[in-house]
């Protein structure tokens, strides 16, 4: 009678596994239990107690298989989640409409910032600084010797908007 326990358990596990398509966790549990039962029966048979060995092997195999199935299922879920939202990282099919800022400031050592990003000192450009931007509202800052001027500039699509500022001392003084 004892020698029919391990094959009976394996038969029941196989039948239960064939009833519906198993999830990775169920597959891991069933497979782990079957392998554990077979290994437990073989080791238990060598020790003289194949029934006990099969039962212990089935339990250990089921727990190990469940943990392995969980790990596989988590990995597959992560892959599915990443591929589902992969389109979010793709660039848009057409670039957003843009325009250009043509910035001319005095004195030459004044610093120019557009939307908080340093563009450079006025003297670094030959003539006005030409900055391509996305169409819309932008914040321009000019800093010189403790003085600063902040302006908001609307840039329409496909348009160049000139911007001039002189932070230097007035010539009349």
Please describe what this structure looks like.
The chain has 173 residues and is of the alpha+beta class. The chain folds into two domains: 2-88; 98-165, Sandwich (Immunoglobulin-like), CATH 2.60.40.1120. It has three helices and seven strands; from the N terminus they run H-H-H-E-E-E-E-E-E-E. The protein has helices spanning 5-19, 24-47, 50-84; strands spanning 98-106, 111-114, 117-121, 129-134, 136-144, 147-155, 160-166. It has a four-stranded antiparallel β-sheet, with no helix packed on it. A three-stranded mixed β-sheet has the order 4-1-7, with no helix packed on it. The longest helix has 35 residues, at 50-84.
Let me know the average pLDDT: 75
Low-pLDDT segments: none
Count every beta strand, where a strand is a DSSP E run of 2 or more residues: 7
Q: If you compute it from the alpha carbons, what radius of gyration comes out, rounded to the nearest whole angstrom?
A: 37 Å
Give the class from helix and strand content and strand pairing: alpha+beta
Helical residue percent band = 40-55%
Distance between the termini: 114 Å
Indicate the overall shape.
rod-shaped
Outline of the structure:
The chain is α+β, with helices and mostly antiparallel strands. The chain has helices spanning 5-19, 24-47, 50-84; strands at 98-106, 111-114, 117-121, 129-134, 136-144, 147-155, 160-166.
Topology:
Elements: H1 5-19, H2 24-47, H3 50-84, E1 98-106, E2 111-114, E3 117-121, E4 129-134, E5 136-144, E6 147-155, E7 160-166
Parallel strand pairs: 1-7
Antiparallel strand pairs: 1-4, 2-3, 2-5, 5-6
Helix pairs in contact: 1-2, 2-3
